[in-house]
Design goal:
Structural class: mainly alpha
Strand order of the largest sheet: 2-1-3
CATH superfamily: Skp domain
Family: Belongs to the Skp family.
CATH class: Alpha Beta
Largest sheet: 3 strands, parallel
GO molecular function, one term: unfolded protein binding
Pfam families: OmpH
GO cellular component, one term: cytosol
Distance between the termini: 68 Å
CATH architecture: 2-Layer Sandwich
Number of helices: 5
Number of strands: 3
Keywords: Signal
Amino acid sequence: MKNLFKTSAMALMATLMMGASASAFAHKVGLVDMQSIYGKLPQMAEIEQTLKSEFAERRQELEKLQGDLRFEAEKFQRESATMSEEQQNALRKKIQTMQKALADKGRPLEQEIKARQNQELAKVQKLIIDAIEEVAKKGKYDEVRVKDTTIYFNPDKVSDLSDKIVEVVSKK
């Protein structure tokens, strides 16, 4: 009886192990390299161009202010030895006023640019996620992982789907 119990338990264990290993073989995993995908998408160049043109006028204004500030600072360094105390103070005040104006205009512009970048990136990210789901369903993948968060994978058993994702997103 004891021997029969052991044999039955071993047979059951072997069956479970075979079932687990069979399902492990059936598990199809895909991998995506997000950095590579973002780098290859034509939408990213379009976003960059759109943001450049959208904020070009305000950036030029800041660059002009920076140039004026640099000129006044260099002027102060060159001519401060020959200036009166009153002229030095006036130029210092002018430089400080320009620095404050640059900071007051620069910070909000930088924040606005970042907010717009995030909006546009969110749109592209949604396209990428939709494309990953589409490719995974078509290819009957059980799981798709991000390459950067995966410590190890066997390249013979895991498919890199990055190029397929780029292809799908590029068409949209």
